[in-house]
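Quick log. Single chain, no ligands specified.
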Amino acid sequence: MNHPSYRDRRRATAPPRLPGRARNARRLSAAAAVAAMLLVGCDTGTPKASPHSSGPGVSLAPSATPSHSRSTFAPALTAAATACTNSSKLAGWSNRRLAMLTIAVPVSETSVSDATSEVSAGAGGVLLFGSKAPSDLGSRLTTLKSHVPGHLGLLVMTDEEGGGIQRMANLVGSLPWPAYMGAHWTPAQIQQNVTKVAKKMAAAQVNMDLAPVVDVDGRNVAPSHTNPDGWRSFSGNTSVVSKAGVAYMNGLRAGGVIPVVKHFPGLGGSTYNSDFGPARTLPWSTLQKVGIPPFTAAIKAGAPAIMVSNNIVPGLGTNPASLSPTAISSELRGKMGFKGLVVTDSLSAKAISAAGFSVPAAAVQALRSGADMVLFDLGSNVSSQTSSIATAITNAVTGGHLARSRLIDAAGHVLAVRHVNLCS
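-> predicted structure:
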């Protein structure tokens, strides 16, 4: 059977060719139609925002612009230029307000209202001190949170590690020392028991736990002036600590509490307790093999926050790790890829003053080094100390000693760990 060639079929199906004048008329008509469509698009004003944005906090609605002053590409370009993010919102905040967001204010758990003025001024968090929480802690914290500007949430943190380091065991139940957990409980048992405690913490409006300790230290002693770890460590075995630390972390998250993995880059084998004086960790070359793997495991498992120690790390500089850009920005952020919140250990530690820093000066140096939130101890001058820290940070930005972009970045991490979206 003979099949017509492609050329023959094309001729058979093609419409008849119009004379030249008719073809030109049709082209003009089509062009006019396109022009009319474009004019209609330009005269409709600002399009309504889509109910579904392309990502968190992204607005797809361009700003209203007269039709004669923009091209047909203006809506897309305007949307890209005005996309809302936490950073773009924070850029409009004052330096003082940004500074306050990076401060955790210490307060007694029996008198949380003492921090009302600081919370009203925009403090990013409060750190509870004490050993026995009041039965109505939850309602007291709810009242305190009502004073947060813009109702953006508040980090309410405490030390609930287990053993002798428990602030509110009377409300949430007791856990044994981590050393006991590491030796006698499976990771599944650790997670299960921690979740029970975390749920009660969350019910009492405490949403952050400065735990787990993932330092590798097998010394069978209570923590002391000379040894910050001892029973606070799950084990002297790196693998055991890695698994137990992730289990503890996941237990907190399952119960609705934000874990803070500590104390980077590891206090196991330290020469002293930095709370009481200058202290050094094991050499960096040793820590990379022994102390860092538990932090790496936690980061891979999604750790939302990490606390940096006040110990000097031989091989990473002469400043305490909490004040070291090498430890935080280069190693933790850079090489290890940590994207979450970086919190300092207490800047009231004797190791900080021994390094030549007041608490306000240390706060500035910590932020410069890559930390996002600064902690200090409960004392009689909390209000003035908080104000001094905020002033030091603000003056550092004004004087060019702290990049404003770094302060905005730190404030952004504080909001992100609480899943706050300023654009919603």
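Residues 20-42 form the longest helix (23 residues).
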